[in-house]
Design a protein that fits this description.
By secondary structure, the protein is of the alpha+beta class. The chain is 21% helix and 41% strand. The strands form 3 sheets. The protein has a 7-stranded antiparallel beta sheet with strand order 3-2-6-9-10-5-4. β7 (126-128) and β8 form a beta hairpin.
Length: 187
């Protein structure tokens, strides 16, 4: 049976307009945004480059695939890093996905030690892939890319690369970064 009074829709407003009991709406400032983003677990990679712009590496968690046609990836690099200018100069980069026993490599290429760039590289074994960028021999996988496009966004550049070469190991444990700490995940 129908109600005698037509619905105004108001009886649904409470479920639409109020926050869920277990969520808080936050002021949109950089600190809250960073805190929210820290809850997103991300794989950790060392991105390398080599060529006329020099040999550099940096730890990067802002990376993902774009398309399989053509095979392509994107990375987000802070424009103030040496890595950024070197990638744009060399027009290539290699993304090396770290395993769960690579925390020290992540910290090193993440700027958490005072080693010279050459010394960071000297502690590990690398093989140059098609573009000439170094692939970490113990990485879970390495994706070697030529730079396709660069888009500036705030402090960072979104760099899209088309894949020139690819290496991968059997399934194993990958390194994740979440809430400012490392975790391990079977991948
Ligand atoms: C776990 C982790 C993830 C990071 N992710 C990024 C990233 O996605 N993009 C970025 O520009 N820097 C990222 N960084 C910081 C860079 O690694 C760091 O700024 C860079 O190595 C500094 O390089 P430079 O001192 O040679 O200029 C990350 C650092 C860590 C430890």
């Amino acid at each position: 049976m129908y109600d005698s009074q037509p619905s105004t829709g108001a009886e649904h407003l409470s479920s639409i307009s109020s926050e869920p009991a277990n969520q808080d709406r936050l002021a949109l400032d950089a600190q809250n945004f960073r805190e929210a983003m820290s809850r997103i677990a991300a794989a950790v990679h060392v991105v390398t480059t080599d060529g006329p712009g020099g040999r550099f590496g940096a730890t990067v968690s802002a990376a993902c695939s774009v398309s399989d046609d053509p095979p392509s990836m994107l990375i987000c690099l802070n424009r103030q890093t040496r890595m950024h200018d070197a990638v744009l100069h060399n027009r290539s980069f290699c993304l090396n996905t770290l395993s769960d026993d690579h925390e020290e490599i992540s910290d090193s290429f993440g700027g958490r030690d005072n080693l010279e760039m050459a010394e960071k590289f000297a502690r590990h074994n690398w093989t140059n892939l098609a573009t000439g960028c170094p692939a970490l021999d113990t990485a879970r996988l390495s994706v070697d890319c030529e730079v396709f496009s660069v888009t500036e966004m705030g402090t960072h550049s979104i760099i899209v690369g088309t894949v020139a070469d690819l290496r991968m190991t059997d399934p194993g444990k990958s390194l994740l970064y979440v809430r400012r700490g490392y975790k391990s995940l079977d991948t």
